[in-house]
Structure formats: C-alpha cells, structure tokens
Design goal:
The protein is 59% helix and 12% strand. By secondary structure, it is α+β, with helices and mostly antiparallel strands. It folds into 2 domains: 72 residues; 58 residues, no CATH class. The strands form 2 sheets. Strands 1-2 form a two-stranded antiparallel sheet. It has a two-stranded antiparallel sheet with strand order 3-4. Helix 1 runs antiparallel to helix 2. The longest helix is centred in the middle third of the chain and has 49 residues.
Amino acid sequence: MAELKEKIAYLHGLADGAGINDASREGQLMHEIIGALESIAGAVETVRDEQAELSRYTEYIDLDLGELEEKVYGEDDTLDLVELECPHCGQTVYFEEDVLDADEPMEVTCPECGGIVFCSDRDEADSASDAAEKEEDLS
C-alpha cells in the first residue's frame, strides 16, 4: 500500500515540478487524475484494513466454534465403523460400531439389495438368513 501512495506522490511531484497548473485544461485534467488516484488509494487502504479486521474476527469465531464442537461432540470426532460384506449381493456395507452393542434389537440392511447384513437380535437374524436362503433356492 505504501508503494502505491509513493507512486501517487511521485506523480504529484512530477506535475508540480513540470509547472502544470490549474489554468490550462491539461493541468486541470492532470490534477483531477492525481486526486482520483489518491482517493482510490485511500479506499483500497480502508478495504484492506476492514478485510484484516474481518480475518481476525473470523479466526476468533473459528476458535470459539472449535471449543464448542469439543464440548458438544467430545474430543474424538472420528467414527468407529464396522465393515461387513452383504451375504446376499456381496456389497461392502459400513455402519457404526455402536450398533453392535445396542440394547434394543437393531438391523443393518444393504443399501444395494435391501438384504439384512447384521441384526443384533440373533434369533431374528437367523430367521432372516434362513428366509433369504429359501428365497434364493426358489429362484
């Protein structure tokens, strides 16, 4: 920014040194151009300062958000996933490890074929597996 202001000051000095005054049309034009450049330089400096302030403010918001995420989600934000192959179509299915320890019966179905990949209720899983085998035998 300082370099831009120096160049404008240099132009102003050249115009003064060349004896260009406001009496001629060219002199008026030159002084108006230099004045416009000074205004532009001032506006650019204002925008730069405001951008720097917004950048600092955004950094503080990011830090606050990080602290809030730690409080809400805990420090470990990675998911522990289980990978199983669908016994019906062979598609790899991923689901959260928490499903394995669920208190109530839970089913994980294949997004490809809709078949049951995992069921936390063993009796239900066996009957579903038997039903799938019978369905394949009928085909």
